[in-house]
């Protein structure tokens, strides 16, 4: 059965307050880093000054104002589902979650990009289950954004309406509240990809997404963007510039090593957090309760 080798431990060990040598430290933030905002803040200060009045609210108020379509999450894609006995990796998502919190103790990371080299490596799977892992904690809100405008899948897995969504917001055809969907109970929110657009690269770079992230991200513990693959299109590079950290999903035994290197090179020296090795085969020497940690940034 497949299992995820979450791989951020080495990132913690290798990160240094100064710029790392190439390839040595996956966590490499340029410039001064401020203290992260307190977790679970209900009335956050907006970056750069006073809060935008409409977003000076907490998750409950936000939930009250956005759509609650009643998702029908497909249990086949939810590693925490009670019906899901074939996924042994719920614990590995908890561990990934814990690593991210530890990384955040020293660096102000809140907005994550999940990308990969090629389609089908598990970006959507990781983004969704990481968000579920986060919101299984008490009063920890997560916002999932389907930023893969070319092959959006999050709404399918979550049984959610696909529109209005991000593309509609970026087109100026919908406001923040109309593209945000909320779970009725859990602190999980979703912005689906929205209607098909012929020009996703231009839309993602038009400045509106940055404004949206600036306004809504302080309301959430984490914001997770499900991105397109790196080698196919330029979108992931644009999106990475709007995020605090990049997680690269690698499908074990499938993606050629040199292609992975090309992908890592795209983010190395910027905001690469590490690699999640997905669908790795269980190895005898891991033991029953251990995971294959280790960030591959070479
Ligand atoms: N660890 C895993 N175990 C089992 N199935 C997985 C795992 N990761 C991904 N998959 C499955 O592989 C397929 C492709 O994953 P997906 O997340 O859609 O890839 P991507 O978003 O990178 O294109 C999906 O059917 C998904 O459910
Ligand atoms: Mg996907």
Description:
There is one protein chain. The chain is built from 11 helices and 8 strands. The chain has 298 residues and is α/β, with parallel strands linked by helices. The protein has one domain: Rossmann fold, CATH 3.40.50. An 8-stranded mixed β-sheet has the order 1-8-7-2-6-3-5-4, with helices on both faces. Strand 4 and strand 5 form a beta hairpin. Helix 3 crosses helix 4. It is globular, with a radius of gyration of 18 Å. The N terminus and C terminus are likely disordered. Magnesium ion binds next to helix 4.
Write the layout of secondary structure elements.
Elements: E1 3-7, H1 9-14, H2 59-65, H3 90-106, E2 111-116, H4 123-135, E3 142-146, H5 154-158, H6 166-170, H7 176-179, E4 181-182, E5 188-191, H8 200-204, H9 208-216, E6 222-226, H10 235-240, E7 245-251, H11 257-267, E8 272-280
Bound molecules: adenosine-5'-diphosphate and magnesium ion.
Keywords:
binds magnesium ion; binds adenosine-5'-diphosphate; Rossmann fold; alpha/beta
